[in-house]
Amino acid sequence: MEINKYLADNLAFLAESGAPIGSWLAEHNPDPAIVHERLHKNQGGIVDWRMDDGQGLFSKLPPPYFYKDWQPVEKLEGAATVIIGTALGYGLNHVLTGTPNSHKVLVVEPRPEMLLACLGQTDYRAFLAHGKLAFVPPNAASIEMALQNLDVSFLFSRIYLRSDLACKQMGPEYAQMSVLTQAKLENLSVELTTLRHKQEVMVGNELHNYGRAMNDGSLARVAGMAKGLTAVLLGAGPSLAAYAPVLRRHRHKGFYAAALQTLPALERLGIKPDLCLAIDYNDNMLQSLDNLNDPAFAADIPFIYSTKMDPAVLARYPGPKMPLWTQGGMATYVLKDQELVLDAGGNVAVTLERFLTWAGAERFILAGCDLAWQGSATHAPGHHHAAGVHTYNPREDVKLTNLHGETIYTHFGFLAAKRDIEKDIAASAAGFFNLYGGGVVIEGAVNIGPDDLESGELLASQGIAKEVFLDALNRASQPRSRPVFAAKAEIWATSLKNASRRLEKLMRKADKHQGEIRELLSQIQFFSRHDPLYMPYLYNEIMDLAGLVHTKARYGVKELATFKNIRQRILAKIREIDANLAPSSTWAA
């Protein structure tokens, strides 16, 4: 490694390519003099970095000690490595040179002067241009965005997280960045697992709910109508029963909102919410309705339902209903200018908070939103998960300590919801209060007890805000006009048939045409993503095509058979979409 030989070339490439890390470096403007001062050759003859205490990063142990296990044993196509800390590039270079070209490498370096030092030692332009390497600004938003591009690696290969032990000698920010990145990877895991295994069912439900949703109204009509509202979000956590008395006493003052799953618990506690909401596509929502002692309890409770829900649940619900379009579904692009299309998160409490925030609510009180449990009771009685006795499972559950010093348990889904709520709180002008019941701490929310609610003032909305919002919900449930979309199944069938013939021809001499086969599959994948109406339902097929393009070292008969299967699935789904969205013989232009 030569000191700072390549810095100017690497920086110029990052600037010309518009890489976000270039803007981050320019914003922080690290002093090159610090780099020149700290870089030196140590007693072992290698380029080293002098830390604040005068010691070199590698003065006690040479680089191979830190990075010997960083190269994956399996040379998987399409895998990825996320590196926290550059340490002059020793570990990074070890990974770059020891993995296939399809292996992606993301690097997060929290210290700008360390990034400068790394960029000065190695010419990374070829790796950057190929897309194998990317430097990521060390902030949550940039890391989250960069990790989203590793979906193929997650689904068809592996993602490795490498935290540079040498860098950790310099300060706590490296460990903190590792924890943040690990959390983002966990969120990505939940999101992609949901998409991979559930997207087909969820968007299929949307198709079958389309006509009903048009008749059940539009939430776009309640935009801004919750101004001045105080919303009490009733979760089904174990603490709900303990706080039921104070919530009952002041029922008339608060606007109470809950998940559909919480209704049976609230029925048993004598608390009727003003609104309920559900996003779960599973048929266990039917169990929530079965758990009601009297179905009439829900007859006058407005129900906001995700259009991805099982149609059977909607048919059973006895009260008024309004559709909620959520991101990732068919409305993401084609209805975004006509409807509220909400990022629902993965937890119904998050969805409720985001919907009411969008509508204009100005204060939130979280009750029973424990996102954790003690002992064996994970939910309040009446919830469909409350019937069984839960035993701590270290492979799925997480052990924590609450504010009282007591041991509590949670799981990654609850922790993801906690992070989502905390992120929303940090970005919101609304006030958040947590009726703390011994669960996880929600940062940004003021912890309160039942005594803080006894006067009822904290629960009350401004003026007639509650009445105004309830009236807006009633008006929102009126039918809306139904868009009609042109059928395109024949166009898709012709295009895919032509591509398939070309692919079969190339496969006859596959060894000679490997590059052309990969390029054609890439073009087919691009085509499968070109129409925003069809793309959400084709998620699995699009990802399977991406797997063929990015994780196969060679193409042959097996890959041709895989493609033909994908093609058949695509055409079947296109015809299903046409049948549900454009059911008449007169198509829209």
Automatic annotation (TrEMBL):
Keywords: Coiled coil. InterPro entries: MptE-like (IPR002826). Residues 205-374 form the 6-hydroxymethylpterin diphosphokinase MptE-like domain. Pfam families: MptE-like (PF01973). Residues 496-523 form a coiled coil. It comes from the Bacteria. This is DUF115 domain-containing protein. It comes from Solidesulfovibrio aerotolerans. The lineage of its organism: Bacteria, Pseudomonadati, Thermodesulfobacteriota, Desulfovibrionia, Desulfovibrionales.
